[in-house]
């Protein structure tokens, strides 16, 4: 399995999988203390489907394209 981690990732995939496999009866706070993680980090990984990092790219383009660029006729400078 080839997983690319974000360069600042501090939680390895093995720990992420362990967090996800814990029963719901174990609280996020208990897991955070056991793994020396922030409670929000534990909650995030327990809610996710996989152990891969989410995209850090913008989901929306916050720019307005000119009419020439929208039609495909504009050049990129």
Walk me through the structure.
- The chain has 77 residues and is mostly helical.
- The chain has a domain at 10-53.
- It has 4 helices and no strands.
- The chain is elongated, with a radius of gyration of 20 Å.
- The termini are far apart.
Residues in helix, %: 25-40%
User: Unreliable segments (pLDDT under 50, ≥5 consecutive)?
Assistant: none
What is the N-to-C succession of helices and strands?
HHHH
Strand content: under 5%
Number of strands: 0
Major beta sheet summary:
none
Structural class from helices and strands? mainly alpha
Distance between the termini: 40 Å
Q: What is this structure, in a nutshell?
A:
This protein is mainly alpha-helical and 77 residues long. The chain has 4 helices and no strands.
Topology:
Layout: H1 13-21, H2 28-35, H3 39-47, H4 67-70
Helix pairs in contact: 1-3, 2-3
């Amino acid at each position: 399995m080839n997983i690319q981690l974000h360069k600042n990732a501090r939680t390895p995939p093995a720990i992420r999988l362990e967090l996800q496999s814990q029963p719901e009866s174990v609280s996020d706070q208990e897991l955070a203390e056991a793994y020396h993680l922030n409670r929000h980090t534990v909650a995030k990984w327990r809610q996710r489907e996989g152990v891969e990092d989410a995209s850090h790219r913008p989901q929306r383009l916050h720019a307005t394209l000119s009419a020439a660029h929208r039609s495909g006729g504009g050049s990129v400078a």
